[in-house]
Amino acid sequence: MFREMVTHGALAAVLLMPAAAYGIEPPAAAKAASVQVAQASSEWDKLVKAAQREGKVELILGGQMPRKLRTAVPAFTKKYGIKVNYQTGSSRRHSARIRAERKIGRYTVDVWIGGANTALSILLPNKMLAPIKDLLVDPEVKNPARWYQGKLHFTDPEGRYILTWGASPAYVIAINTNLVKPSDIKSYWDLLDPKWKGKIVARSPARRGAAGSSVPLLLHPKVGKKWFERWANEMDVTIVRDSRQAVEWLALGRFSIGMFGLGTPAEEMQSQGFPILAYLPHVLKEGETLSASAANIMAVDRPPNPNAQKLFINWALSKETQTLFIKTGKTSDSLRMDVPEDAVAPQYRIRLDRKYYVGFSDPNFINNQRKHLKTLRNIMKKARKKKKKK
Fold first, then answer.
1. What is the per-residue pLDDT for 30?
2. DSSP state of 123
3. Of 103, 143, 215, 369, whose CB has the highest number of CB atoms within 10 Å?
4. Cβ distance 59 to 312 under 8 Å?
5. Is 153 helix (H, G, I), strand (E, B) or coil?
6. Where does residue 127 rank: exposed (0-12), middle (13-18), buried (19+ CB within 10 A)?
7. What is the DSSP annotation of 232-271?
8. CA torsion sign, 275 to 279 to 281 to 282?
9. How far apart are the C-alpha atoms of 91 and 7, rounded to whole Å?
């Protein structure tokens, strides 16, 4: 963290004092480092004071996991004395409101934490986001070595606006343990076994909220379009809008397998003793995908509190706050590699001994997500038409 760096820099300066006292000049590199630490400290102090004069930051928490962070953001107020006004709810509703406000010259939001889909389809095309990369000033936040795969992850084509701070393995499959053994499903292709026909309930893989798990499967060379076509046409899948309804049907044994976006309610019902396994305990043959879900942070363009915006973003990406966020959010691991592993449940940890497909860092996933979702929509649409004709 930034303050730790200053402390270490101060200690280095003290250690150099005896040499100076004896008329020995410290090495040039050490002197340069000391100057950089002093400059960084001065810049940070100025930012904090400017943000405190503004006195508040306006925040949107869009999505299930970000909503949980409302209990974490008071830590920012406690540390800096700056009030955080937050709003939760539908990202699409918030984006519509912001667009309407901007038409009459009102700018009311500083920071947005939430899913990338609304940002990619609405916020970015309408120039409602500022380059967050330009607002990073904390050396420990900017340091690539602190982050997964040695880089900051941006889920937008330019790599400047949507910073992904967290992710977890994507769990696509839930089962009724009275009807299915985990060992029955070792590959996605096992789900096409005729014995599961009519016994699968799912949210549509073509909806935007499912993109983090469905599109990687579409792009996977060992799953792909052929698998989705067979799944949609051969398995008599029941598609629902309400994930809670799907999980209740799964718990009651009306269906054996649930898929795409059922994780949170499935975990809740599993914890209540229902015969549900919210995720398979083993890795499928085709491997694992990391999904960012809603663990993204964005800087809204023309913020009402620009200094508080900048301070909040750097605070949110610090080791201290990332640890707090993943403890509070519960379903995402931090992409910061210095956050304690035990701060997140084992099933959501990013394991360095495993290889993952990282969609939010794949240009094909980022740049062509709409096209891929359209492919899935067409597959689902054709399957519905075929079903009606029978």
1. 53
2. I
3. 215
4. yes
5. strand
6. exposed
7. HHHS-PEEES-HHHHHHHHHHTS-SEEESS-HHHHHHHHH
8. positive
9. 40
Q: How far apart are CA 65 and CA 88, in angstroms?
A: 11
Specify the amino acid at residue 249. Answer: W
Q: Which residues make Cβ contacts (< 8 Å) with residue 108, sequence separation at least 6?
A: 58, 98, 101, 304
Alpha carbon distance 109, 361 (integer Å): 27
pLDDT tens digits for range 65-106: 899 999 999 999 999 999 999 999 888 899 999 999 999 999
Q: How confident is the model over 328-349, as pLDDT tens digits?
A: 998 899 999 999 988 888 999 9
Q: How far is CA 254 from the centre of its chain?
A: 32
Q: Which residues contact 123 (CB under 8 A, 6 or more apart)?
A: 95, 112, 129, 298
Q: Tokens for 31?
A: 């002197």
C-beta separation of 271 from 330 below 8 A: no
- Provide the phi-psi class of 115: left if phi over 0, else alpha when psi is between -120 and 50, else beta: beta
Instruction: Check for a shared fold between 55-166+292-353 and 172-279+369-389.
Output: yes
The CATH code belonging to domain 55-166+292-353 is 3.40.190.10
Residue linked to tokens 């299915």? 180
d(CA 275, CA 67): 28
- Given 3.40.50.2300, 3.40.190.10, 1.50.10.10, 3.40.50.1860, which CATH number is that of 172-279+369-389? 3.40.190.10
Report the run of H or E that residue 46 belongs to, with start and end: helix 28-54
Q: What are the residue ranges spanned by the domains of the chain?
A: 55-166+292-353, 172-279+369-389
